Structure formats: C-alpha cells, structure tokens
Amino acid sequence: MAGAGIQWVAPGAVTGAGASGDAEGDAQGDAPGGDAPGGDAPGGRPRGIPVEGALCAPVRAPVGDSGLAACGIASSVGGMSTAVAQSASHMTPGAVPPHPSGHNYARRYWMFAAPAALVVAAVIVFPWIFTFYMSVHDWKVSGSTPFVGLANYAKMLTDERFLWAIVRTLVFTAASVIAPLVLGVWAAVTFAANFRGRGLARTVFVLPMMATPVAISLVWTMMFHPQLGVLNYLLSLIGLPPFAWVYDSTTVIPTLVMVETWQWTPLVMLIVLGGIASLPTDPYEAAILDGATAWQMFRHITLPLAWPFIVVAAVIRMIDALKAFDTIYVITLGGPGTSSETLNILLYQTAFAYYDLGYGSAMVVVFFVLILLISMVLLHVCQKQVMS
Amino acid sequence: MRRGRLGKIASQAGLYVSALILVTPALSFFLWMLSLAFKNEADNTDYPPVFIPNPPTLANFIDVFEKNDFLAYTINSVIVSFSATGLALLLGVPAGYGIAKAKATKAAVLILIARVTPGLSYLIPLFLLFQWLGLIGTLTPLIITHLVITVPIVVWIMIGFFEGLPGELEEAALVDGANIWQAFRYVAMPLARPGITVAMILAFIFSWNNFIFGVVLAGRSTRTLPVAVYNVLTFEQISWGPLAAAALVVTAPVLLLTLLMQKEIVAGLTAGGVKGG
C-alpha cells in the first residue's frame, strides 16, 4: 500500500480495507487468473474499499467525516514528511529531510483533483441541487413556475400510480437481488476453481453484462414472441404449453427479473470471485486433511469468509435493480397497461412524456432517498450478521 | 490415494458440468442473435424456428445501413464515446492521483453517491440547462452528460490504482528535486498505465452502451447507436433480421473488446462494481 508502513490516520473505516486489500493484492496474481499478472490488476484497495471503507462511509459518516477534516491534514503532514524522511535516510544516509515545505503537500495534491471537481460540480452536484429546487415548484416546460412548497410531495401520497410503481419496484428489486446473488455465488465458486477453458468460459459468462442493453433487450423481445418466439418453441420441445412472457400482466415482472438475472449475475460473480481469490488457502488444506466434503468447505469456509464481498455484491445489485431502466423500457415500456411500470419508468414518463418536471423532480428526490435508505439498512443488517 | 484421485476426477467433472450450465444461457443467447442476424426473412419467421442460417446472408446488414443511415449514427456514437472517455481520462487520472495522495475519503464517497444516483435524475436539470443554452440538437449535450458516467468510473479505478502503487519512487523523485506534477507525470503515471487502460476500456464501454441520455437529449440527426436501434424497433416491428443485425452492429464492438481485453475488464470490474448510468 502507498505510504508504506505509516499506517496513520485512516479514518477508522479505511484501515480495515487496507488490511484486507493487501491480502487481495497478493492473491490476485495467482488466483483469479493464472492468466492475470499481478501488475495488471489494480491493487487490492478498490476491492477492499467498497467492503469496509467507502460503502460503510455513508453509514458511519459522522465518524469518518468529522475526523477527516482535522486528521486528514494533520496526519498527511506527519505522514508525508515521515515518508520523505524515511526514504531520504534510506537512500542518502544522514541527509536532512529536503522538503521543509512538506506540509503543503496535501493541499497541493488537491490541485490534481480541481478540474475534475469542477466538472463533477457542474454535471453531478448542480443537477442534485437543481432537482431539489424544481421539486418544490410547479414546473412544466413552458409558462411560469410558481413555488408550491411540498405540494408535489403530498401529491405522491395519494397518487395510486406512483404507489403501485413503488410496490412493483420493490418486488422487482427483491427478486432481482436474490436470484443473481444465489447464481452469482455458485458461478464464483465454479470459476474460482481450476479447470481447462476457465478463462474463456468466464469471459462468455461476463458477456451479458457488457453487451449493449438495448441490443440484448431487442433480441429478448423477439424471443418472447408468443407465436414465433424461440422460447415457446423450446418449451414445446419439452412438452410444456406456451408461456405468456411479457404479454401478460401476471408474468411480465417475473420475465423481466429473468432478463435482469441473466444480465447482471456476472457482476455478482466477479465481485464474489475477487473475494474468494483473496481468501487464505490454509483453512482449505486443513479441511481436506480432515476429510471435509466440498459442500462442507463451501458452507463453513468459503461462505463466511467471502461474506463481506457477498454483501457488497448484494448492495450494488440492489442499487442497480432499483435503477433498472433500459431493459424494461425497451421490452415493455411499462406495459402491458402499467403492470411493469417501475419507479424509474414512471419517472421518465412523468418528466419526458408529460413534461411535469416539478412532480418528476419530487419523485427523483424520493427515489434517491429510498435508494440510500435501503442500501444503509441492507448494509447494517448484513454487517450485524457478520459480527454474530 | 486412490480415493483421492477418483474424487479429483469426480470434482473435475462436476466443475465442467457446472461451468457448462452457467455458460449455456449466455452462449445460446448470443448464438441465437447471430442466427437471427444472418438468416433471410423467410427463415426468421418460420415455425418451428430455423437455427442455422442456410445460406447465411448479409442482406440484413445492408438493409440496416441503407435504409436507416446507420453510418451517421455510428459516427455520432464514436464521437460521443471517444470524447467522453478522453475527457474523463484527462480529468480523472490526475484527480484519482490527487485523491489517493491526499487520502481524501470524502471525495471517494461523493463518487460513490454519484454511482448510486439514478441516471434520470441528472437528466431533468441538464435537459433544461441545455435547452436554455440552445445546445439541444448538437452532440455537445451528449458528450457532457456522458461525463456523468465516465468521470466517476475513471476516478474510482484510478484512486484504487494509485493507492496500490508503492510510493517510494515518487518520493525519490521528489527528493531529487522534482515537483509533484513531475513526480506524477513522469513517475506515477507510467507506472499506472495498466490502470489507465482498465479505466479507459470500462469508461468507453459504459458510455457506448448508454441509452437513457441519448433518448432524451438526442435529436433526429444526433442519435447514438443504441437510440437508433431502438427506433428501428418502433418503425419495423416485424422484420426481425434487420433488427437483429442492427442490434449486432451496436453491440459487436463491445463484445469484441470484452473478448480481447477480458483480463483487464475482469480486473477492473472486480474492483468494486463499476457500472455506468
């Protein structure tokens, strides 16, 4: 890890990530690929950080943030000059620490981030603020935009279409987290093992999540065709009656969940695979000596040790499922009727089909809060489970 | 001993079966996509379905490019994705370095929240802004909004990468009198080249795949490929061959890139579930 050996500051959260990150960094070289030279894989930290660091940070914000302003600067003063001093004395013994102005480094490093910060402010932070501003106005595309206070928010409470969209979104999300998670862990365990052709198989398995969503949605749509679709033909081959797929209000959500699962199980697999690759090998060796079965090893070694990664995968999957748009929009446009209209689709219709930007913005705010809340709850619950 | 070897063979076989089951849905899907794109119209609407194009035809692709002006849309997509990726690298690589060196966890959290926010929520304000600036109907709004996808990906991957690099070399450069810009430009950046490659590939792919921004912001002549393909659907609902061909044209570059750069892509995606939009 950078800043070698000087494990200073690290506002709580990050320290843990650093530790686990190191382990991964070592494992990466040989594990996920005999084909992946260690240098090509980004160091352990990016995988570490979502686990104990960044994703927790919003939860533990009070600790991390208040600590940051104070110790961030103070410690980088200490850290940096110590580092310089160390390396200096290492190479030229007895040399005086050459940077008396070393304490400015932290601030100067910010200059590197300044241009990006400006752009992020313009295209990311500005929209957040402006969305909130619009949400308290009656904002149609043309005409005046009077301030209406919380009227847009109040409207949601009695808007049945909106409330149903929330219910549908939650159902869709729950199913689209559980199915990919189960399959993804299975896939990760499979692809973590050594067998010939693993690299190719893994790449093919990853293709659905890389392919253009619109393109795959179109092909799925053709496959769902009630008379000519290949799926119903395949069902008929094994003696099953034709299925309605996306053409019936009771089967449309399960069908979309199937597409979502097909598309995003690979991401779960990759995250969990990264976790499994970082696990120590000695528990397995001991278990083999004791004559443990593959299932026992999975249940009592892999699952508990890789659990933090599974939690991260679950949270990421959940966020993406809540936000799912492309596939639903292309395949059903929220239909038949409104039976697959999730929050994101309704949001789109409200803002860009009915041009009710004020109401749409209020929905965005609620949607955003919903996403944050659910991710925090999920993280909290799963972390407790790790403790116990 | 003998039991161990038998067990080993059994578990190898189990692995192959397991891998086969896992790969089948993806493999058969893409094969079917190829089959649809290379069959003539009669075969495509035949029942029971024809699986292997006989003879394979390029008519669908010719149809797509002649009738739908796909060349122009391809150029749009190339301009938008390359610009958005290039700008993101220009901004994001130094930013990742700065954040990693300054240990600015707060900035990383901001990036994370950007990852959580639904893409649509950027669109309402930006749509109004671009309308007000009179930019709707040009490619500029698309390039700018695609930065919403590419910048966080690049910054996120680069933070991780720079934190993983040993700091000693830059420190040595600083001791030798280089300023921090030089230490970054001539020491850290060359070392981080593999990370930059990963960031570039992923930013490009997720920008290329983006649909939602184009649907709202693109005019008739500024459509990107995903939007153009979606419009093929709405105009010619029954002709499957051209539709599949169009879908293949859009996604083929991404699939090829994935197959060629699988090592980098797997490394990058394992790095914390990057995904755009």
What's the Cα radius of gyration of chain A?
A: 25 Å
Annotated CATH architecture of the largest domain in chain B: Orthogonal Bundle
How helix-rich are the residues of chain A, as a percent range?
over 70%
Structural class of chain A: mainly alpha
The CATH architecture classification of the largest domain in chain A is Orthogonal Bundle
Mean pLDDT metric of chain B: 85
- How can the largest sheet of chain A be summarized? none
Which blocks of ≥5 consecutive residues of chain A have pLDDT under 50? 1-103
Secondary structure blueprint with pairings:
The complex is a heterodimer of chains A (388) and B (277).
Chain A: H1 13-30, H2 45-53, H3 61-91, H4 105-135, H5 151-158, H6 160-192, H7 198-210, H8 213-223, H9 230-237, H10 252-277, H11 282-289, H12 294-323, H13 326-331, H14 343-353, H15 357-387
Helix pairs in contact in A: 1-2, 4-15, 5-15, 6-10, 6-12, 7-10, 10-12, 12-15, 14-15
Chain B: H1 2-38, H2 41-44, H3 59-68, H4 70-102, H5 105-116, H6 120-133, H7 140-164, H8 168-175, H9 180-191, H10 193-209, H11 212-217, H12 225-235, H13 240-260, H14 262-270
